């Protein structure tokens, strides 16, 4: 399946939800993709469902060596890397007094350190082609919420990292956009999406379409931070 001319993308946390929708949209736009998840059987099955232009790789973004190996394998398979979509994330919520050390570490190590490891591994390949990095943040990256100590900290940090990446990488020809959605109809936090009850929420395919649209922006233009909200949330 080695490709030398087809554009390619590496997407973390893509077994379902936003990452999976982005993979579908990029394949439809002509990209080959590598999708990752911690669950080997699940990601292999999802990749098979996406077709011949998809590879599924088991990878825990908390492990920098695993991330580097996954990115290197992608470059070997497709001949390069054009788009990195940093999506893997977890959430543990609760009063700081009750939040365990293990929960804090899981959120920070996945959402923030995992993003750093992924970007770090991909920079050489992205530099070679003048690639594009998307970091999937959240409106929780600017709006604190009760019980959000770990999650808020990880997303505030991810926004800061994304802004620095713009400054550090633009001379390498790499664009960076942080996407900050509000309520999205995904499985995040143990939620089971419901077609009727979640109809008002942002849908994963909406963010996938946004990603493709950003990739087609003129080269001279960079929307570096995009906040996305449901247009008509329920009245409180």
TrEMBL record:
Ordered alphabetically, the record's keywords are: Oxidoreductase
Pfam families recorded? adh_short
Query: What are the GO cellular component annotations?
Result: membrane
Provide any one GO MF term from the record.
oxidoreductase activity
Q: Carries keyword Transmembrane? A: no
Q: Which InterPro entries match?
A: NAD(P)-bd_dom_sf, SDR_fam
The reply to whether Hydrolase figures as a keyword in the UniProt entry is no
Q: Which family does it belong to?
A: Belongs to the short-chain dehydrogenases/reductases (SDR) family.
PANTHER family hit by this protein: DEHYDROGENASE/REDUCTASE SDR FAMILY MEMBER 7B, DEHYDROGENASE_REDUCTASE SDR FAMILY MEMBER 7B
Q: What is the protein name given in its UniProt record?
A: Short-chain dehydrogenase
Q: Which organism is it from?
A: Deinococcus soli (ex Cha et al. 2016)
